[in-house]
Amino acid sequence: xxxxxxxxxxxxxxxxxxxxxxxxxxxxxxxxEDPEMLERQxxxxxxxxxxxxxxxxxxxxxxxxxxxxxxxxxxxxxxxSPDWFGLESNPTEPxxxxxxxxxxSLAWGSYELTVVYDLLRLTPHSGHIIxxxxxxxxxxxxxxxxxxxxxxxxYVLVETTDLDPAxxxxxxxFVPPPSAGxxxxxxxxxxxxxxxxxxxxxxxxxxxxxxxxxxDDLLAAxxxxxxxxxLGHCLRCPFALRCQRAARPADPxxxxxxxxxTIDEIPI
Length: 268
Prior knowledge:
Blueprint: E1 5-6, H1 8-16, H2 18-26, H3 35-55, H4 61-65, H5 68-80, E2 97-108, E3 111-123, E4 126-133, H6 141-146, H7 148-159, E5 168-174, E6 190-195, H8 198-221
Parallel strand pairs: 1-3, 4-5
Antiparallel strand pairs: 2-3, 3-4, 5-6
Helix pairs in contact: 1-2, 1-7, 7-8
């Protein structure tokens, strides 16, 4: 099937391994399921649903009453940020838009760049993106800055509003699940806020042009090359056996928690 919509996950895989992009999004092959990964995804879905309900003004009590782990995590987050992320209305800078699971698209040549913001807040002179991360491994700030999710989310927001890059920022809130076997023990949530700039915006535009031209060539040639084995990615890839890079499927226990930009945001 043709690849028209490009997300941060597509861009990450295109840089990481074009063949894996082909298997995952063009051929739509299902990778072996990792039970631990599925559990992390279920936890992420539960947390995102709770935050969406809160943003919609719906009561959380019925949901939290049935989910003690979620209730513990939400309480820890509230204690860490009592003002709920400093996003309360400012009478001198009224919000013109505040929405959870907000989708935006930007035409880019023959493609459509698509993003889904967990929470977006716009005022006449500022834009702030909040994204929830629900795994334990917290990347360094330098990693987050270079991450395609950060870059694409901020880029699309500039291109679809009248705001300048310097008026935008993005905050990742990390809220891990309760520790295994300790339902009342939760790692303390934490936030990382990243500023944007015109220089970063121009750099992202250059990389988008480079990657989409590369993708054009791959689609025209119908040839998506495998990644260099020297990089070591094949050892943890679920398609290593299909690519004849392994004698047996990759051990899921060797697979690290995926980086934030390999997982596409899906509206709940």
